[in-house]
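User: Fold this; tokens only.

Assistant: Input:
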Amino acid sequence: MAVKTKVFIADDHPIFRHGLRQMIESDPRFQVVGEAGDGPTALAQIRKLAPDIAVIDVTMPKQGGLEVVRALRASRPPIACIMLTMHAEESTFNAAMDAGAQAYILKENAMEDVLLGLRAVASGAVYLSPTISSYLLRRQQRASALREKKTGLATLTPTERRILLLVAENKTNKEIAAELFISPRTVESHRSHICQKLELDGPHRLLQFAIEHRSEI
């Protein structure tokens, strides 16, 4: 018998969670292992139950879904996340992608899209509700333009790229060091190398660049 993909649902509306659970479990490939109605409870339960995929609402009490996704993507091993939202704005989509979400599903289409999203994410792919698919194309076009402008991006090591993304989250050297299990001095050295590769001069230029281009790096 095939092992089922374990799914966790985090949404503050019990009736919606119930409908979502029924939809997910109608597919024999998936098993819902838990639910939560607020951010802190979701984070604690997900860490305890270790699902393969977490379906998380953007707007939840006490702690927002974006914060939960960032925490889960930073965990070891990272947990795949599907963002569920009523917000179709491109800025919210970019924030979700920046946080590490692998799918972005609008609630108005959730019952049709959630299984498609779960299947895609379970296979390592990205999924978006079709009505906002143009957002991903524009995001990719911006990233391509930035790579042409800043050719040094292609020379960044995996660690340097990870540090650049953490800088974009406005994290301090100490916070980055703790997350990557390295010393603050090593982080500072990496930051210096990144600045050299990207031709960034000045004490705050790296932070400015990272925040300005966090959706493209």
